[in-house]
């Protein structure tokens, strides 16, 4: 593969190019990380659809997308941050998108295997096969091998790792079949498994699927994986009905599995072996969490799940509330799903439906979202609750002052490492590209 160093220009406090271990690295102080005019200004990468930051021991790895259209084509760019030396590498391309593509849905997903190699999976094109790429050396982002592509009509790869280095990847699959007199819409979330550090993958089964005939609607199942370190696969799933973005996400469901084969509802009272049978429209209600119109979502109609975590072994989530622009927080308390209603710290109304994340550590729930600053720019902020979501207090702004920021990301395993990374996209009103803001982040500093 023809890899080249992207000669990034540095702005603010990133400077002093050094050659270390065959990688170009830069002395780091919190600041804007330039994409040299290549950054996608409106990337579709959602945090938990596609984890793009991962921390392994004393290094963190990040991935961002170039702009759409030729000659950029949403190509995935990879960088490394060293938490000991406080140095950040240049960004390196991990393979061209072919054919040229301007669809920002080409969401990459990154993780390190137990031997320290970086694994990247991405769709190419959107609703196409998943391409597999892996570094050839421990913690190296230059020496890259491509292992070809896998599957068809797949999108939104989301990688999870068990302690024994077994890797799982959840993808969406969907299509519409029409024979002029009849139309069938099909959507599913598929599970794939690798036992050789991501070099090869096998299909396990459809976790869930839905087929509707003559509906005239767009039927899609969107899954968000819950970050965890207890060898349990957990996902929240939205069923999208229709093409109206305001009213098309009325229902939320939850599934979990210890082995990727047997999937159950949160109570464990209903189980499905996905190697022979999938969760579908006939048994989906056994995995129900909530829906719009049953009094649980206040005046919101779009309840698309935007973030999730585990609280003392129990799943929790935050959903978008499209009508009033506020997020809704809920969790499983061991007996029932609890909806705490709208997260409403008084400091910063209204919220944008972007960059939402919920995290948990040592009795404290953390929530991240975006609010409108005094100058009209988007500001990413951190909030916390010590009473299970009854009240929320503002902690600090995470994004830099004076910039329009969105698409907040943390190391996907940030709750389980001492220190990881936070990043966000910095958007300019007078430029066709975006840059990144990158800083170290430790959730332990806020408890």
Detailed description of the structure:
The protein is mainly beta. The protein has strands at 15-20, 23-27, 31-33, 53-56, 59-65, 76-82, 87-89, 92-93, 108-112, 118-123, 128-135, 144-161, 167-178, 183-194, 202-213, 219-225, 233-241, 251-257, 262-264, 271-273, 288-291, 305-311, 314-321, 326-332, 337-342, 351-361, 364-372, 378-385, 393-397, 404-410, 420-427, 434-441. Strands 1, 2, 4, 5, 6, 7 and 8 form a seven-stranded antiparallel sheet that branches. The chain has a seven-stranded antiparallel sheet with strand order 9-10-11-12-13-14-15, with no helix packed on it. Strands 16, 17, 18, 19, 20 and 21 form a six-stranded antiparallel sheet that branches. Residues 1-29 and 294-300 have low confidence and may be disordered.
Topology at a glance:
Elements: E1 15-20, E2 23-27, E3 31-33, E4 53-56, E5 59-65, E6 76-82, E7 87-89, E8 92-93, E9 108-112, E10 118-123, E11 128-135, E12 144-161, E13 167-178, E14 183-194, E15 202-213, E16 219-225, E17 233-241, E18 251-257, E19 262-264, E20 271-273, E21 288-291, E22 305-311, E23 314-321, E24 326-332, E25 337-342, E26 351-361, E27 364-372, E28 378-385, E29 393-397, E30 404-410, E31 420-427, E32 434-441
Antiparallel strand pairs: 1-2, 2-7, 3-32, 4-5, 5-6, 6-7, 6-8, 9-10, 10-11, 11-12, 12-13, 13-14, 14-15, 16-17, 17-18, 18-19, 18-21, 19-20, 22-23, 23-24, 24-25, 26-27, 27-28, 28-29, 30-31, 31-32
